[in-house]
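Hi V.,

You were right to ask for the full record rather than a summary. Here it is.
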Amino acid sequence: MSDTKDYLKEYDAAPEDEKFPLVYGWMKTEPLAFFKQLREQRPILVTPEATIITLFEDVRDTLMLPKIFTVDLYKPKMADYLMAHDDDALHDREKGLMHAMLTRDDLPLVRKLVAKNAAKILDEANGEIEIVENYCRGVPATIVRDYFGLDGVEPEDLKRWSFWTQYDTFHNQPFSQNSKEKFDYIVKEHEKASDELGKYIIHLMIRKSLSVKFGEAKNFLFFFWNLLVKGFYWITGRKIDKLTDNIVTRMLRASYPEQLDFGLQRVGVNAGGLLIGAIETSSQAVAQSIEMILKDPALLAKAKEAAQLDDTKAFDDIVWETLRYVPISPFVFRQAAETYTVAKGRPHQTKIDAGTYVLMATQSAMFDKYAYDDPDEFNPDRTFYHNFIFGYGSHECMGKYVGMVMMPEMIRQVVLRTNIKANGDIDYDGKPFPTFFNLSWD
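Predicted structure:
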């Protein structure tokens, strides 16, 4: 689509009930050209259903005001998980605890684990693979199992639980343009997934707690532990993996002062949160980045060269630059809790009323000249500090640093294949996430 298309002229001429659907469609299908016109002519677009914010400074400003621009829309979808809390004691306390558990000292080992699991899947594919289900979701599922510690369950269950939670939370909102029938169906599937996940987490907490208390005993308790393990498997049918160091086990081994209110229930809630945020988002980012690289022979050649280096930074920077163009979403959303004037004192200042749905166009912000010189040019040598791929502010992705090694390593393992090519484009099958993407290589 040409950059000269006059989106605002078409928007202004549209009937009121068609304005936001037009905008929503352009953000999904023609984001770069649409956002460029907004940044230049109408940086804050007030539509009948939501307000769109496009400039870097304004996006950053609003995302740093969690009590004003809240995640209230998350709350019916996330129950009492920390990411549904705005700037309160529970959010800060539990995010701090989880950051301590997800120590960045683990990252080299995590990357090696990703590389091993990714290479194994590709090697066993014998030169052709449907990559979304089998790889883009499959590799993160192994990290959820082996590093996060959500074991004893089929990978397909982990994938399904992540899929429906992500779908309902981030793509089934009042402004998401879903029919009532579709909206209700997604909610129903999410409720079913949440019920299954909740039951699994209860089993996991019991099993891991017993493992922490008795699993490493060297005396007669070891005999009784084996009886407990066999009994648990007989009752639940769940397989028990060998006790290893993982995030769930770390949480259960730690001792917390009563004031931290981080008992077994809260450990379980946060264990489930690790799963939800890891699989579907990573899958989408990996698939879309791979597609962009494979479509451009020059970019593929540059990526292949960087993938051969012992130092992965050059390759990783290529991945982050592709995700400026093909992020998992062009925006993050909030709801205004009070009236606030964005860009106060500037020509485009706009009063946003309490209750308004606000879409912070993070993709647009990453193409703002304030953030980057020559933003329309593909340039891997950019600072990551102006990148919104993992969000920004208090609700920045908790597993950001795990994602920063997992996703590029998954893409790297694909790029390293000889004569790698895509057999067609990604098929989304009417969903917000990639569904089918076939690759082959020699």
